[in-house]
Design brief:
With 101 residues, the chain is an alpha+beta fold. The chain has one helix and seven strands. The chain has one domain. The longest helix has 18 residues.
Length: 101
């Protein structure tokens, strides 16, 4: 009987420890990420600590300083760690006005 009580207690503690979510570091996403698109072409994504990003596909690059119709733009990102799976938003902003495109 005593062994059964000890076993139940250990089992409850084990289940409780499995239920805890591992906290990801808020900078775990920083760095270089790469993969291949549906045409099997390399795509790279760099996430910087200042919230800027650099996305490269083929010979095209969007980063913290590019132009669209002579307007200075920047690529930024937001990460929502409260979602499962974690959500990543890439945002193009006009540098001067700060307006999202």
């Amino acid at each position: 009987m005593k062994n059964l009580i000890v076993f139940k207690l250990l089992f409850v503690l084990f289940l409780a420890s499995c239920n805890n979510k591992t906290q990801l570091s808020k900078d775990a996403h920083l760095g270089f990420w790469s993969g291949y698109d549906s045409d099997n072409k390399l795509v790279t994504l760099q996430l910087n600590s200042d919230g800027t990003a650099k996305l490269t596909t083929d010979n095209n690059t969007l980063d913290s300083n590019f132009q669209i119709n002579d307007i200075s733009m920047e690529l930024r990102y937001l990460i929502d760690y409260t979602q499962n799976p974690i959500q990543l938003d890439l945002i193009i902003k006009e540098k001067e006005s700060g307006k999202n495109i």
